[in-house]
Amino acid sequence: MTGNPDEHDDDPPGIGAVRTPRQQLRGLLGRETLSFRELREWLGLSVRRLEEELRHVERSARGRGERLWVDPPRCLACDFVFRDRQARHLHAPGRCPACRSERITEPRFRLEPR
Q: Can you give 69-106 as a three-state secondary structure string?
């Protein structure tokens, strides 16, 4: 990241240009930590599309000296943490493998400098 704190908020060049969902995602995650559900609501994306965008943001962040921080989902009943799940899925699972509870927290994301 360069020294410009508003780097994520720059509008694309051109009259009437609109920020892409990926640019909006980078802007949101550069400012605050948001859950998967909150990101879907803000951006209006499907689960699959948001996962694709998050994976791309994660890859491109490395080249910018940033990293995508992921707070993994956790079972509220038994405190099981889904650490290995983020390799395959970025959204919350439906059920805990340890206790079968469906009370699972949403994963949370943010961009931070390395």
A: EEECCEECCCCCECCHHHHCCCCCCCCCCCCCCCCECC
pLDDT, tens digit (0-9, with 9 covering 90-100), for 27-54: 999 999 999 999 999 999 999 999 999 9
Angstrom CA distances, 50 to 14, 33, 78, 90, 100, stand at 26, 15, 28, 9, 26
Residue 14 burial (CB < 10 Å; 0-12/13-18/19+)? Answer: exposed
Q: β-strand 66-71 against 34-35: which pairing, if any?
A: unpaired
Per-residue burial over 35-65, b = 16 or more CB atoms within 10 Å of its CB, e = otherwise: bbeebbeebebeeeebbebbeebbeebeeee
**By CB neighbour count within 10 A (0-12 exposed, 13-18 middle, 19+ buried), where does 12 fall?**
exposed
Segment 56-99, tens digit of pLDDT:
999 999 888 999 999 999 999 999 998 875 556 788 889 999 99
